[in-house]
Amino acid sequence: MATTSTQRFGRRLASSVSRRRLSSSAGEIAVQRSQNPSLNLCSAINQALHIALDTDPRSYVFGEDVSFGGVFRCTVGLADRFGKSRVFNTPLCEQGIVGFGIGLAAMGNRAIAEIQFADYIYPAFDQIVNEAAKFRYRSGNQFNCGGLTIRAPYGAVGHGGHYHSQSPEAFFCHVPGIKVVIPRSPSQAKGLLISCIRDPNPIVFFEPKWLYRLAVEEVPEHDYMLPLSEAEVIREGTDITLVGWGAQLSIMEEACLDAENDGISCELIDLKTLIPWDKETVEASVRKTGRLLISHEAPVTGGFGAEISASIVERCFLRLEAPVARICGLDTPFPLVFEPFYLPTKNKILDAIKSTVNY
């Protein structure tokens, strides 16, 4: 991933955000680009957490090292403003962090739990999939932990290796009862995180740590929410549909631009919410283009791209003009020095675009 490519993508997103209408508690508010400050994704997350704590006294932020700002500094300033009874450190025990969050949410609070790296969410897997996801169902809707939001930085970072670069979203997409959300940019991260915190369901919110400092765009200062489970067509085209989420969108955008130079018109969709995902938007696009390419950093086998592919083949079989393409991470542990070979790069995506269109 090139730094300049990511920054250019952020500026293009800022331009599109200025034309987009964002929902808020006061209704639809037109975003005026000239009135909004530029923030990176880390600062946008911080702003969303400030708003969540400020607007709801039942909200709490907790996790490893969050009281001084966390390793990525996303929670800096929160403890100073809201006090250490609402923003506090926990022991280094992910199972305990999520278990505590389930109990806190079950008592009617807004529990915002941070897992320091998505790679270390696995000790909490049982709590998430066997407790949080099933809490409402097993009680016949008498009780729930819908106020639980689990934040976790995920994906490549350039030097993380196999313990700090994983993309585990597909594991949680298999479990009914939780939602999985991944933003692509600062303005999206703020609006989607606020929506997650206020949603009546437990949610896993993966933050692309590669973009914490690199993605910069103008972000509305006010309190606003973006709808969950609604994909967004961020680039319209006629020849092939591309679907992705998170940091991969910037790479896919670069591939779309290069494909355009070769006369190929690409439609690019940001899924944003993986579960429940917006099948209708993707289906409508594929019915128009007749081709589909999916890209994500997670390994290709069992990745969420496989679910998208299967669903679209079922819905659009007679309209497809080529096999569905998947450009994803490799079926290996995430490497360190070989990271450039592992990741789904612009050139890999561009080659797949050409191959699919010329099938």
From TrEMBL:
Catalysed transformations (reactions): N(6)-[(R)-lipoyl]-L-lysyl-[protein] + 3-methyl-2-oxobutanoate + H(+) = N(6)-[(R)-S(8)-2-methylpropanoyldihydrolipoyl]-L-lysyl-[protein] + CO2
GO molecular function, one term: branched-chain 2-oxo acid dehydrogenase activity
The protein's required cofactors: thiamine diphosphate
Pfam families in UniProt: Transket_pyr (PF02779), Transketolase_C (PF02780)
Known EC number: 1.2.4.4
Biological processes per GO annotation: branched-chain amino acid catabolic process; response to nutrient
UniProt cross-references to CDD domains, sorted A to Z: TPP_PYR_E1-PDHc-beta_like
Chief site of localization: mitochondrion
An example Gene Ontology CC term for this record: mitochondrial matrix
All residue ranges annotated as the Transketolase-like pyrimidine-binding domain in the record: 39-214
InterPro entries assigned to the protein according to its UniProt record, in alphabetical order: THDP-binding (IPR029061), Transketo_C/PFOR_II (IPR009014), Transketolase-like_Pyr-bd (IPR005475), Transketolase_C (IPR033248)
Subcellular location per the Swiss-Prot or TrEMBL entry: Mitochondrion matrix
Keywords associated with the record: Mitochondrion, Oxidoreductase, Transit peptide
UniProt subunit comment: Heterotetramer of alpha and beta chains.
UniProt name for this protein: 3-methyl-2-oxobutanoate dehydrogenase (2-methylpropanoyl-transferring)
Gene name tied to this protein: LOC115736515
